Amino acid sequence: MNSDELIKKAKDILELNDLGGYTVPTHNLYPFQWNWDAAITALGWMKMDEARAWQEIHMLIKGQWDNGMIPHIIFHKEVDSYFPDAEVWGVKRDLRTTSISQPPVLASIVKIMFEQAKDKSLAQESVSKILDNLINYHLWWYNERDPESTGLVVSYHPWESGMDNSPAWDKSLATVPPVSWEYKRKDLDHVDSSERPHADEYDRYLYLVDFFKKHNFDSQYIYQNCPYKMFDVGIISILHKASKDLISLCNTLKYKPDTTFELNTRVTITESSISQLWSENHYNFLNKDAITNEFCPVLTTGTMMALYGELANESQAIKLNNVLKDWLDLTNYGVSSTYAKSAEFEPQRYWRGPVWLHMNWLLALGTDAYGFTEETQRIKDSASKLIHKEGFYEYFNCDTGAGCGGDAFSWTAAISLHWLL
Ligand code: DGY
């Protein structure tokens, strides 16, 4: 397909997935509004209809809890092709949601939208309306997930990482008990099981969902007792970058509530504590189990997000980029989601090897920020080859390039419109 045809197809996908103000990632497999999907998807809408792009963000924020959390899924309308549904999550709100969040890329995307908008007055009006929501969301991350101000927030569920089935979580997830009741997965009605997580992992995902509900979403209790707690380099880096972007947006708009001082403080603390996650043996940052304090020695696009967050010092950045060069040489396409030398690498299975375009874009922003122009270009060229070859799948086999997971996928179409086309 040539670029014009691809642009048309990408736009058609966003329209096809539009359920009236919010966009599903893909029908059937993910039939609601997901947090970081919505943010990325708004970038695609910016190329088509700016008002619709801002609406995507406003619809996401409708799901925000009183404590500031913006949940990972907003169940705007009932659809029965997804499990676990709103009932299983058990959150009693008028607009049903899940009880965990997702990588907080939102404020960074809002900043890009604000800067690129053609309709400046709409952009100004839209951002002004949501600045407090964004600040409260960030303060929720810091206050609830790092109540001792260590500089490193924790995540409570592999689904919160957005990199759900990454081998980085295996060891910690295996210590979570399996859920004791029977259930039927629905993802396997839509996608081949070789591209999705195993039953053993699902049993534990659901135990955690139940745990939050059973303890009435009590943040203090969950912080102290959750059987899964992770210092996730991906979340920490994405939050860090988004906090800096949010502070910059507040400055641009001359909006300075006292709470931006708190954000500044947290940013400074993270900059000094991130070194606790550096492993000189791996030339990389590593995720760390916050219960056992053990490193997870698996390199993933998540651990590379320290470049995107601009949290690596100069010598760490050079080491990360050297690893990245090798990483790019090892597979035929993209930056694979797991380093191909890892024993757990699988080129087609969900987050264990395939290429996700939005992750490659974030990583390319990181390499670009550090001046690694050759790698930035390599990442972009490879991403471009994938969409020209396969179109807009959820993810791509990093060896064959074959499209995997859901087809007609919103964030792949959106990031292609924003970055590649
Ligand atoms: C899933 O795979 O169903 C998760 O909810 C993704 O967020």
List the SSEs and their pairings.
Elements: H1 3-16, E1 33-34, H2 35-45, H3 50-61, E2 73-74, H4 86-89, H5 106-116, H6 120-145, H7 158-161, H8 170-173, H9 199-214, H10 219-225, E3 230-231, H11 233-252, H12 259-273, E4 278-279, E5 284-285, E6 287-289, E7 295-296, H13 305-308, H14 314-330, H15 357-369, H16 373-390, E8 395-396, E9 403-404, H17 410-420
Antiparallel strand pairs: 1-2, 3-6, 4-5, 6-7, 8-9
Helix pairs in contact: 1-17, 2-3, 2-5, 2-17, 3-6, 5-6, 5-11, 6-11, 6-12, 11-12, 15-16
The protein binds (2R)-2,3-dihydroxypropanoic acid.
Residues 72, 159, 164 line the site of (2R)-2,3-dihydroxypropanoic acid.
What can you see in these coordinates?
Strands 3-6-7 form a 3-stranded antiparallel β-sheet, covered by helices on one side. A two-stranded antiparallel ribbon has the order 1-2. It has a two-stranded antiparallel ribbon with strand order 4-5. With 421 residues, it is mainly α. The chain is globular and about 55 Å long. Helix 5 runs antiparallel to helix 6 (120-145). The longest helix is centred in the N-terminal third of the chain and has 26 residues, at 120-145. The protein is built from 17 helices and 9 strands. The two termini are 12 Å apart. The model has no long low-confidence stretch (mean pLDDT 97). It binds (2R)-2,3-dihydroxypropanoic acid. Residues 72, 159, 164 line the site of (2R)-2,3-dihydroxypropanoic acid (DGY).
